[in-house]
Amino acid sequence: MVSGSPLHDNSPMTWRELPPLATDVAGQLPDFPQISLVAGHIADHREALCAEERPAIARAREKRAWEFATGRHLARCAISDLGEAEGPIPRAEDRRPVWPPGLLGSITHAGDLAVAAVARAGSVRGIGIDLEKAERVTERLFAKLFTAAERQILQESVPTLAGLMFSAKEAAYKAVNPHVGRYIGFQEAEVDVNWQARTLRVRYVGDHPPNRIMSDGMGHFCFFDDYVITVFVIDR
Q: Is 124 left (phi over 0), alpha (psi -120 to 50) or beta?
């Protein structure tokens, strides 16, 4: 379900790592007092990686290594902003970040940008963020990524909706996965978007009951330049 109409504001941005984008984002996302969000341009931060993190990029191409290292750099900035001690964030076998004790978070990148979000584990149950090129998802991918009901909506809506819905599913998966440790297929979730409020819900429609905590979360999104970003939070 999609309600309202798409909004494209140009409001000030507060993410301290990206002052050149200060005209685009801040007014489109709510304040998250319990979450530290830090964004930045992808650059070579490999020298700042901890020893525990380096195996993850041992065989990676330079572009991928820069993306990984920038994500960890921004995550440590976010941890510092919370007043917590910085530490290594290695990669688990399923590729998700392993956060220091007492913290949870999410990292995303697309194009030349990366974003990290970190919260204290007691303040939220789950957090997931996803950054995408807004028109990345073309119609040839619809059958793989969206349910029949979602595909019907997409045929009648704006081109950027597909990118938003894909981003929402990715962000919701990141918020849920640390709790259940199980892959969630794209056909197991359906996205309901409220354009006017810039919010969304992701309903779990699969057959694994623990994944239903996804339906307890709330997503917030905005568009800037040719990107869409989704922040999905499951409150305590």
A: beta
**Which own/partner contact pairs does 197-200 have at CB distance under 8 Å and 24+ positions apart?**
197/4, 198/7, 198/28, 198/29, 198/222, 200/164, 200/168, 200/230
Q: What is the mean pLDDT of residues 70-76?
A: 94
CB 203 within 8 A of CB 176: no
Q: Name 30's Cβ contacts closer than 8 Å, sequence gap at least 6.
A: 220
Q: What percent of the chain has pLDDT over 70?
A: 89
Q: How many residues does the chain have?
A: 236
Write the single-letter amino acid at 207.
D
**Which DSSP symbol is given to 181?**
-
Average pLDDT, the chain: 88
159 pLDDT higher than 90? no
The count of C-alpha atoms lying within 13 angstroms of the C-alpha of 122, restricted to the half-sphere facing its C-beta, is: 2
Distance of CA 94 to the CA centre of its chain: 17
Q: Tokens in use for 220?
A: 């917030």
Q: What is the pLDDT of residue 24?
A: 55
The C-alpha atoms of residue 203 and residue 191 are separated, in whole angstroms, by 6
Q: Which two tokens stand for residue 5?
A: 């109409």
For tokens 């330049």, the residue is 225
User: How many angstroms separate the CA atoms of 199 and 231, rounded?
Assistant: 9
pLDDT at 194 over 60: yes
User: Which residues are bridge partners to 104 per DSSP?
Assistant: 119
Neighbours of 231 (CB within 10 A): 25
Find the helix or strand (DSSP H, E) in which 163 lies. Answer: helix 160-180
